[in-house]
């Protein structure tokens, strides 16, 4: 999912959380003052949260005969910490989490809603203020049960604090076949 064919302002597939307190909207990278280019990409999804445990989700159709266990998931992410007017550390040390299911309907909280939880990557100093490609593995047992059209949710668990402090960016979400 590259967002290149989506018009700026288009809402991505959806969000999940306690009150779905977030927006995930396609933006042109050049329109966000201070957001650096991400290779050849001209668009990305801007995720703006209002409450904890809220992340965007995306609709994915797996090839016939394949399960999610046949893949790992890569995504380019930009977590501002000292750029784009951010004045707090809420993008710096949070876990970048992956969820998947036939229909993700609960908040993004692994210990309370473990059914959809697949994996996490802890963000560190080198993961902020730059576009970085992250690779998620999936839980083999849970992922093996997912076929056909599924939802994949990913994001960091953070609150909203001030202007621009609640936003991060996702791009180039890809399912990579395992050998």
What does this structure look like?
By secondary structure, this protein is mainly β. Helices cover 2% and strands 39% of the residues. It has one helix and ten strands, in the order E-E-E-E-E-E-E-E-H-E-E. The protein has one helix spanning 140-143, and strands at 14-16, 22-28, 43-49, 55-61, 71-78, 95-101, 117-122, 131-136, 149-156, 167-177. A five-stranded antiparallel β-sheet has the order 1-4-9-6-7, with no helix packed on it. The protein has a five-stranded antiparallel β-sheet with strand order 2-3-10-5-8, with no helix packed on it. The longest helix is centred in the last third of the chain and has 4 residues, at 140-143. The two termini are 21 Å apart. The relative contact order is 0.28.
Which helices and strands, and how do they pair?
Elements: E1 14-16, E2 22-28, E3 43-49, E4 55-61, E5 71-78, E6 95-101, E7 117-122, E8 131-136, H1 140-143, E9 149-156, E10 167-177
Antiparallel strand pairs: 1-4, 2-3, 3-10, 4-9, 5-8, 5-10, 6-7, 6-9
Span from first to last CA? 21 Å
As a percent range, the share of strand residues is: 35-45%
Q: Identify the overall geometry.
A: globular
Helical content class = under 10%
For the biggest sheet, the summary is:
5 strands, antiparallel
Low-confidence stretches: none
Strand order of the largest sheet: 1-4-9-6-7
Secondary-structure element sequence?
EEEEEEEEHEE
Mean pLDDT: 87
